[in-house]
Specification:
The complex is a heterodimer of chains A (335) and B (168). With 335 residues, chain A is an alpha+beta fold. Chain A has helices at residues 14-25, 32-38, 66-75, 87-97, 154-161, 185-201, 209-219, 230-246, 255-268, 272-300, 306-334, and strands at residues 42-47, 57-61, 78-82, 104-108, 127-135, 138-142, 150-153, 173-178. Chain A contains 11 helices and 8 strands. In chain A, the strands form 2 sheets. In chain A, strands 3-8-4-5-6-7 form a 6-stranded antiparallel beta sheet, with helices on both faces. A two-stranded antiparallel sheet of chain A has the order 1-2. In chain A, α2 packs across α9 (255-268) and α3 (66-75) runs antiparallel to α6. The relative contact order of chain A is 0.15. By secondary structure, chain B is an alpha+beta fold. Helices cover 41% and strands 21% of the residues of chain B. In chain B, β3 and β4 form a beta hairpin. The chains are: A alpha+beta (335), B alpha+beta (168). The interface between A and B is large, with 54 and 44 residues.
Chain lengths: 335, 168
């Protein structure tokens, strides 16, 4: 069976896309950019050396799971959430919910999703997709990264839901419980923007927010020290493009989708300044996209000497400067 | 970014990109991945070289099968330990090709489950002759020209059924 009337749509990002689909199915008309903006999805964090990652890396969004929590808090929506110690119980609960025609989002390790082309699969425990049915031994999946509805066998879904390691999903799943009769979008948008500005400007940790972009700019010249060889370094430098563009960001490390949010928010809360700021962010995003293309080019050409990495660092540093100004102005506009 | 600059023709990997449309409104378009469209061959070339280099070390007895898959799947010691439930100190031993001999069948199954391969593949390398050379099944993933290799689980947790067929 497949849940009727579930409208599968591709989305820029798996978590905001999954949330949007669940809310739309429950009757709340809301766009992905609004979900992303209200949940303060935009962020930056740089991780130079941690035990969880084999190479320095960065993130361009808030913590996985935080979007749902923020949406719940700011829109008054209620989700039912579940985690499990036992895979058997976790799969049984899903099998109990799906026949009730309740689309249910699951957190999984991307690596075990057989419908993903093998070259794309990486171990990352923070992927979200929606189970919308079951046919025999296969689950029917709405995954925002794919144009069509997919199928996944029971063993693969169980493996994905119960993978161990950093951010282990522990079978986490959720579905929409209630949508309030009235929603104060103005308040939700303002809270979402204020928190995003705080996250980008004021967290007193040197690798988060704008400070994180500066650390990335400074440390990228040290990346050769971590690489096994030139091809490994080339791969990691080209991953900058993947993290900013291909790994579900809507382009330019979520800057384009956040600009879209600001344009929509300007209309909803009648603040034309947000429209001007959305245009500024679109241009800032173009700068991030230049970084993506530069990284891909020098990676492909194995042109990875210190001079090129310094040039890359300078481009990233420039984004820190413009984003610091941007978020200061955004903070002023919303207060 | 303007809508006209966002379209990439690459059906194999579609993404959603937010762009400025002609009427000045921002919104999503479905398009192909720029990176995949332009740099996929380079990515695959590097992956093939990585596998071949590691396989050479594996066959020469310089690294263990656990090290081989750990690098191929980009896992750290801490991650592999958390995912497999095997202590880091024990994994460190299994990274050494000689000490790997002390691995238990149960531990092999735990590693295989994380790496998403049959446990038997931690004790063998399968090469397929295709396009005038032997290539690894890890890279080919059953996409060789004339030969199909499929592996399926059996009721016996330590035994995998491997079928090798001529492609019709």
């Amino acid at each position: 069976m497949t849940i009727p009337n579930f409208n599968h749509k591709m989305a820029a990002h798996c978590e905001s896309g999954t949330l949007t689909s669940l809310l739309n199915y429950a009757g709340l008309e809301i766009s992905e950019p609004l979900v992303f903006g209200i949940s303060s999805g935009i962020f930056f964090g740089y991780f130079h050396k941690t035990k969880a990652f084999s190479f320095p890396t960065f993130i361009v969004r808030n913590k996985p799971g935080q979007m749902r929590k923020n949406i719940e808090k700011r829109l008054g929506v209620k989700f039912s959430t579940y985690t499990f110690n036992s895979p058997d119980k976790g799969m049984a609960k899903l099998d109990e919910i799906i026949p009730q025609n309740i689309p249910t989002a699951c957190q999984v390790d991307f690596f075990y999703l057989d419908y993903v082309p093998s070259w794309e699969r990486v171990h990352i425990n923070a992927h979200f997709m929606t189970v919308i049915g079951k046919e025999g031994n296969n689950y029917v999946i709405s995954d925002a990264y794919f144009p069509t509805i997919m199928q996944l066998d029971t063993g693969s879904l169980e493996k994905g839901r119960f993978a161990g390691g950093n951010m282990s999903p522990k079978g986490f799943m959720f579905h929409c419980k209630t949508i309030p009769q009235t929603i104060d979008f103005e308040s939700a948008i303002k809270k979402g923007i204020k928190k995003a500005c705080f996250n980008m400007l004021s967290i007193p940790i040197p690798f988060l927010g704008v400070k994180g972009i500066r650390m990335f700019a400074k440390k990228v010249v040290e990346w050769p020290e971590f690489a096994r060889d030139t091809e490994h370094l080339s791969h990691e430098i080209m991953k900058i493009n993947i993290l900013l563009e291909d790994q579900g960001t809507g382009g330019a490390g979520f800057r384009f989708i956040y600009a879209t949010f600001l344009q929509q928010a300007a209309e909803i809360i009648h603040k034309p300044q947000l429209k001007d700021l959305s245009q500024q962010l679109m241009i800032i995003g173009d700068g991030w996209r230049e970084i993506s293309l530069f990284a891909a080019r020098i990676g492909k050409n194995r042109d990875l000497g210190q001079e090129k990495l310094r040039q890359l660092g300078d481009m990233i540093h420039d984004r820190a400067d413009v984003e610091e100004d941007f978020f200061k102005n955004l903070s002023k506009a919303i207060n | 970014m303007k809508e006209k600059d966002g379209f990439i023709d690459y059906p194999d990997q579609q993404i959603i990109l937010y762009v400025e449309k002609e009427d000045g409104q921002y919104g999503p378009i479905q398009t192909g991945s720029y990176l995949s469209a332009n740099f996929m061959n380079d990515f695959l070339h590097k992956r093939k070289n990585l596998e071949a280099g590691l396989r050479g070390q594996l066959i020469a007895g310089k690294i263990s099968p656990v090290r081989f898959y750990m690098v191929m799947e980009d896992l750290t010691l801490q991650e592999l330990s958390a995912r497999s439930g095997i202590r880091q100190s024990r994994i460190k031993k299994h990274l050494d090709p000689v000490s790997f001999g002390k691995v238990t069948a149960d531990e092999l199954n735990h590693y295989a489950s994380v790496f998403n391969i049959p446990a038997a593949n931690l004790l063998q390398v399968t090469l397929i002759f295709t396009n005038d050379e032997f290539q690894s099944n890890v890279i080919l993933e059953n996409k060789a020209k004339n030969i199909s290799v499929t592996q399926s689980a059996t009721q016996n947790p330590y035994v995998v059924l491997t079928k090798i067929e001529e492609r019709k």
